[in-house]
Structures are given as C-alpha cells and as structure tokens.
Amino acid sequence: MTRILVFYPSNQRNIWLETTILNLRRRGVDIELLTTCGPGPLHEFLTRQGIDTHTHPFAKRSALAYYARQIRYLVRFCRERGITTVFSNLQHANLIAGLAQYFVAAKVVLFRHHFKFVLPGDDIPLKTNRNERIFDTLINRVGKTIVVPSTGVDFGMRDVEHADMTRVVIVPYMYDFEQYDSPPPAAVQAIRAQFPARLTLVMCARLVPFKRHALVFPVIRDLVKEGLDLRMLVLGEGPERERLESFVREHGLEDRIIMLGFQTDVMDYLAASDLLVHPSLTEASSSVVKEMGLLGKTAIVCQGVGDFDEYLASGRNAFVVPRATDGSHIADIVRRIYSDPGQLEPIGKSLRAIVLERFSVTPSAVDAYLALAA
User: Which of 14, 190, 304, 306 has its CB surrounded by the most CB atoms within 10 Å?
Assistant: First the structure.
C-alpha cells in the first residue's frame, strides 16, 4: 500500500499543497503531513479533512545540530509509520529529506518551488543569496527525483545550475479553485472608495529586490507627474520596506503609493484593483497571477520567468515585458490602459479561462502526482 508523507517547513495554508494532499487521498492513498514547525492553520484545516498531521519543531541554536536532529527524526518517523514515499517541499525541508533518504526505504521526491536565476544574456544587477545557492547545489546533487512546476525552472537548473536533468521532472501545479472565497462586494467597494483613482494598480509580493518594487515606484512617480490619476496598492512585508517607504516620502507619493503591509484579505484588494503589476524575477509558478486571473483581471509580468511563457500571451490574456526592462515598457502599458481602461475586461476574461483550463484539478493532473510515488 502507498503511504505518502508530505514533509513541509511551514504551518501556513497553501491551496496547491492542500489540493494535492486531498486529491491523492481521494484516490485511496494513505497520506499525512509532517512539518518542521509547530501546528498552525494548515494543520487545523487538514485535520478537519481527516488527514493525520504531525510536527517536529526544534530551535535552531546550532545549524549542524538542528539538521542532524531533523534528519534523525524524519528517518525514525518513516520507519515507524511505514512510509513508502516522501514528498518534500522547499529548500529547508528538501535538504533534510535529501540527506535522510540514505537511511530509509522510502522513495524521496523533492519539490522545488523557487526560481532565482540570473540567466545567460541577462543584464540585471541583482545578486542571488549565497546560502540559497549552496542549498540548491547540495539538493541538486543528492536529489534522486526533483519536481519543478514549470519549464522556466527546468531551464534555469539546466543552463545556470548545470544540474543532472535526468533527475528533474516537470509537474505543473493543480488547484481546487473552489477553495477561494469570492471577495465580498461591500469589502471591495469599501477599498475602492478609500483609494479612489481612474486606474488602481496593485503589487502583491514580498518586499525583496527580486520582486522589483524599486523598478516600479519611479514609474508611478513619473506617471503621476504627467497628470495620471493613479493609485498603487502595495501588499506585503520584507527587508526592502524601509527603503521603499523612504522613496515614497521623498517624492511626496504617500497618497499615490499605499504601503499596506501584510493583509489576510488579499483577494479583496486584488478584486478592488484594475491591474496587477508583477515584474518579479523569482516566480516558479506565480499564485498571485492565477488569483488575479480567477477574478477576471490581468497582470503585467516578465518574459522568461517561471511558467509565464507557457500560458501568457501579451495583449491577449496579459501584458508581458522583457526581463531586463528599465520600466519604460511598464509605463507605456499603463499609459495605454489609462486612456482606455475598458480594454482590460476581455484580457482579464481570457486570463481567467486559461488559468482554469491549465491549473484546475483533472484526473490526468492527479495521475502525474501518483506516478511520482510509483
């Protein structure tokens, strides 16, 4: 009998993860969750669905002691519970599971969910984190099966990291889109009334360099100087917040670039906005773009990032700009939309259609995950 352990370093809910677990269970798989942190909303949700959940938090006073203890625990857990396959997710858990695989009979499958590559030919002055590069190198070496969600990650692993691509499998994400609650019309209207504008833009991402807020903020400044009635809602936290807020204050943009921080009702803010500006360089398969599409709205994204090239066509269901844009492409798009906001509706409908077609749960999508445990 197949017994799958989903190994995960977070206790926060994730619709892709929940969709995968529940649909495998519906196919008769005995599946459970183990996290390297304490219980949280993810455990609560899955427990209500009848999934066994477990935790093993351990203070990281010494990195060596921490990883040694997590590896020992995972090995013991797999042996005691008769686990036949481990589905491990994210760098932190993948390093633990990749090293533990030498001491268990279970097949270990490592799911990679990040895209942080400076690709050949790029002229983008951004540096990747040294520790993250070391983790990726180790995981690429020990991983026997590494699952990525897009051709973009596959390309980066091959051409930038020079990984052994015989070990890499592309399996797109699948989502139970019914888990998304429809934004309450009153809440959406309240946001629009609080931040009125002819065109409302939104950025929804961690405030880190790879998300490129620092590229977009000067664009908004210049467009406002031209007389455009714009507001941009900025959702998220991160180490760049202080620097970005300083830019906003320095240019008197407090009523045009609204720094809202972390919000739990993200879908309400997306629904209240007209266009997502998302020139991120670190998307394996962006959730927020799919969420914008689910609402019948669209986004500005970068070419050659994650799976955008696989399902987005500029002017048809999104707006795609070069990876190395200096911001002028974004400014031109916003000007065109500002002159005729009505053009967004058919583009947003087209994005919704392709998102539902490509990422919904289907028998063949579930089969792809079952095949990983074979």
Answer: 306
